[in-house]
Design a protein that fits this description.
134 residues; mainly alpha; Four Helix Bundle (Hemerythrin (Met), subunit A); 5 helices; binds fe (ii) ion
Length: 134
C-alpha cells in the first residue's frame, strides 16, 4: 500500500502542505517496512516519528488558526486531540513489542484514513477562510 500525494490534498499554504506531505511520506515508510517484514520495534520507531510529527503539525496548525482568528479553532483543536488519542492507542502495542509480524498491513488502512481524513475532512473546511487572509 502506498499513498500517492496529489494536488487534491493541497490546501495552498506551503508550510501546511509540506507538513501533510511529510506525514504521508512517514506513513509510506511504515507501509513499506511492514510489507518488508520489519520487526515490531522497527515499526514502532517509525510510528513514534509519525506521532511526534503529527503532534508538531497540529500545534503549528492551531497557532496558525489562532493567529487568523479562525472561529472554528476550538472544535478543530478538539478534533486534533481525539485524533492523537486514537493514534496513541493504536501505536501502544508496537511500543510494548506485543505485535507480531503483519505483512498484510491490514493496519495500514487505519493510518491512511486517520491522516487523509484529517486533511480532507478536518482541514479543508478552513481553506476558504484562510485563502482570503494569507
Ligand atoms: Fe493539518
Ligand atoms: Fe487539522
Amino acid at each position: 500500500m502506498v499513498i500517492e500525494w496529489t494536488d487534491a490534498y493541497r490546501i495552498g499554504i506551503p508550510r501546511l502542505d509540506d507538513d501533510h506531505r511529510a506525514l504521508v511520506d512517514i506513513l509510506n515508510d511504515f507501509f513499506r517496512a511492514t510489507e518488508d517484514g520489519e520487526d515490531t520495534r522497527a515499526l514502532g520507531i517509525i510510528l513514534e516519528r509519525f506521532e511526534h510529527s503529527l503532534e508538531d503539525h497540529c500545534r503549528w496548525e492551531e497557532a496558525l488558526l489562532d493567529r487568523y482568528n479562525y472561529e472554528g479553532l476550538m472544535a478543530h483543536a478538539e478534533g486534533h486531540r481525539r485524533m492523537l488519542q486514537r493514534l496513541h492507542v493504536f501505536i501502544q502495542p508496537y511500543l510494548d513489542g506485543h505485535l507480531l509480524h503483519d505483512q498484510t498491513c491490514d493496519k495500514c488502512e487505519f493510518l491512511a484514513n486517520l491522516l487523509l481524513g484529517h486533511i480532507r475532512d478536518d482541514d479543508f473546511p478552513f481553506k476558504p477562510y484562510l485563502m482570503t487572509l494569507v
